[in-house]
């Protein structure tokens, strides 16, 4: 029987954003973007709490306004992972910490629960993440679409912005294969708390710096990341066009529904 693990979700949210300024507070739907992410995370069954970690009072005020829980973090921290680790350091009774980026308003509750379940079932794994089948050929060459390849036990072998695995001879049937040949990585992570605190102290690795993918630091150090499969990738908000499409999906879902990522 899998171990019962106490778990929380931490949503790192910063005000500055290069491609979409102040995106956490965009509210064309009637709610700030960070609230959509918070409410999506609340729908997960396994975590006992959802916390927004920020260094800016405007975001903190927006979260308080909708009744969310906030933790202020050091404004000098270099990454969202460091903000998540700072909150985890204050909560020694928690076993697993899930990192859901603030710009992932459609992050599925099922994906959060799946990652926690993976860590409960696999004591050797220090981290878990999720991926979805990648069926669009144009996405294979898009560096913004991160790909992952796994071993037979579901452990990540490598993450890349390049096409992996690379077909020596192309065949359109590769896109429809079951099990899928190509997997799109989603930027959701569950960490064992002790490992997260250790990760925050590890220097960036060569592969991480080359690909600009922080999870490669973990693989390069020799640790296991288990990858759970979900049916469809959620859509993060990085650009004005991403946000426009999200607003359209939200409005199309109606006031009582949730948007579905395309």
Protein model, in words:
This protein is of the alpha/beta class and about 260 residues long. The chain has a single domain, classed as Alpha-Beta Complex (Spore Coat Polysaccharide Biosynthesis Protein SpsA, Chain A). About 30% of the residues lie in helices and about 20% in strands. It has helices at about 35-40, 55-65, 80-90, 110-120, 135-140, 195-200, 205-210, 215-220, 240-255, and strands spanning about 5-10, 50-55, 70, 95-100, 125-135, 145-150, 155-160, 185-190, 225-230. A seven-stranded mixed beta sheet has the order 3-2-1-4-8-5-9, with helices on both faces. The protein is globular. The mean pLDDT is about 95.
In short:
By secondary structure, this protein is an alpha/beta fold. The protein has 9 helices and 9 strands. It has a single domain, classed as Spore Coat Polysaccharide Biosynthesis Protein SpsA, Chain A (Alpha-Beta Complex).
């Amino acid at each position: 029987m899998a171990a019962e693990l106490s778990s929380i979700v931490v949503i790192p949210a910063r005000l500055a954003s290069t491609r979409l300024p102040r995106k956490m507070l965009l509210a064309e739907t009637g709610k700030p973007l960070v609230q959509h992410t918070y409410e999506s995370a609340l729908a997960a069954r396994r975590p006992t709490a959802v916390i927004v970690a920020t260094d800016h009072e405007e975001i903190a005020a927006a979260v308080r306004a909708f009744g969310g829980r906030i933790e202020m973090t050091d404004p000098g921290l270099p990454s969202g992972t460091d903000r998540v680790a700072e909150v985890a350091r204050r909560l020694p009774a928690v076993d697993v910490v899930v990192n859901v980026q603030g710009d992932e308003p459609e992050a599925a509750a099922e994906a959060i629960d799946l990652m926690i379940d993976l860590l409960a079932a696999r004591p050797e794994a220090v981290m878990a993440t999720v991926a979805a089948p990648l069926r669009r050929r144009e996405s294979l060459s898009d560096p913004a679409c991160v790909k992952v390849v796994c071993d037979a036990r579901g452990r990540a072998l490598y993450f890349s912005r390049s096409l992996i695995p690379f077909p020596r001879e192309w065949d359109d049937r590769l896109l429809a294969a079951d099990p899928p040949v190509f997997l799109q990585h989603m930027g959701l992570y569950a960490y064992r708390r002790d490992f997260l605190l250790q990760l925050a102290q590890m220097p960036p690795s060569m592969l991480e710096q080359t690909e600009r993918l922080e999870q490669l630091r973990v693989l390069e150090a020799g640790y296991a990341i288990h990858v759970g499969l979900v049916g469809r990738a959620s859509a993060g908000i990085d650009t004005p066009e991403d946000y426009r499409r999200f607003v359209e999906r939200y409005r199309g879902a109606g006031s009582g529904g949730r948007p579905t990522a395309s």
